[in-house]
Automatic annotation (TrEMBL):
Keywords: Disulfide bond, Glycoprotein, Immunity, Lysosome, Oxidoreductase, Redox-active center, Secreted, Signal. It is an enzyme of class 1 (oxidoreductase). It comes from the Eukaryota. The gene is Ifi30. InterPro entries: Interferon-induced_GILT (IPR004911). PANTHER family: GAMMA-INTERFERON INDUCIBLE LYSOSOMAL THIOL REDUCTASE GILT (PTHR13234), GAMMA-INTERFERON-INDUCIBLE LYSOSOMAL THIOL REDUCTASE (PTHR13234:SF8). This is Gamma-interferon-inducible lysosomal thiol reductase. Dimer; disulfide-linked.
Length: 256
């Protein structure tokens, strides 16, 4: 690694010997060489400009396809996904939640209906969380509420209490209206389409994709140490939270 040379030294070199060390195409005075990354690159002094901001790295994209009452889904969301999100800076991890899982969509007399693996209450839970996301829009607003629902005694009975704790600005009446109206059905149809479009098709839940891909290895790594996986994949500067993480065991997924 080249040693960092103070900008004042570079400027002195330029004044004493104007042509010394100046890259072809560098038409900037020495005091501006570190003023921007483009200028530093043009003058070939990028490694000697420690104050330059690092280029932003793309966040790791993680999508969780799950069911609201699946024990393994709840375990992963509560014990791995939510803590990892809390530990990492916002620009490092982008999460998409798709509550649907192994549900089945049916057309009954011209209207869409859904049958869920763990019964009607799970369908209600899936739709409640979909409507919550629709109404809140901001991930940092709705994810703590979903964490509260999934970690509590009842996914479907604690909406009002979870909203009061984590998002009192949200109107529970609007969420209820969404669940009871056409919007909720539309949202669940969208989640059904997203789930059915998975390649490879999902065989169980929780089903995890990382940067748009699913493999057995990625799934196993995410379930064993999600924090470690995200830290490994992220190409930007690593935060202190990436110093290490312990693996946890989870119950078997809910197979179709």
């Amino acid at each position: 690694m080249a040693p960092t040379v103070p900008l004042a030294v570079l400027a002195l070199v330029a004044l004493v010997a104007p042509g010394l060390g100046m890259a072809p195409g560098c038409d900037y005075p020495a005091h501006r060489w570190c003023s921007s990354r483009d200028t530093a690159v043009a003058c070939q002094v990028e490694s000697r400009c420690p104050s330059l901001p690092h280029p932003a790295a793309a966040p790791v994209q993680l999508s969780l396809y799950y069911e609201s009452l699946c024990p393994a889904c709840r375990e992963f969301l509560v014990m791995k996904l939510f803590p990892t999100w809390l530990l990492l800076p916002e620009e490092m991890l982008n999460i998409t939640l798709v509550p649907y899982g192994n549900a089945q969509e049916r057309n009954v007399s011209g209207k869409l209906d859904f049958e869920c693996q763990h019964g009607p209450e799970e369908c209600l839970g899936n739709m409640m969380e979909a409507c919550l996301m629709h109404e809140a829009k901001n991930f940092s607003t709705y994810f703590p509420v979903i964490f509260c629902l999934e970690s509590g005694s009842s996914v479907t009975q604690n909406l009002e209490a979870c909203l009061q704790i984590y998002a009192p600005e949200l109107d529970s009446g609007r969420i209820t209206a969404c669940v009871q109206g056409d919007t909720g059905v539309t949202l669940m149809h969208h989640n059904a389409q997203m789930t059915d479009a998975l390649q490879p098709q999902h065989q169980y839940v929780p089903w995890i994709t990382v940067n748009g891909k699913h493999t057995d290895e990625l799934q196993a790594q995410a379930e064993a140490s999600l924090l470690g996986l995200v830290c490994h994949l992220y190409q930007g500067e690593k935060p202190e939270a990436c110093g290490g993480s312990k693996a946890l065991k989870f119950p078997a997924g809910c197979r179709r």
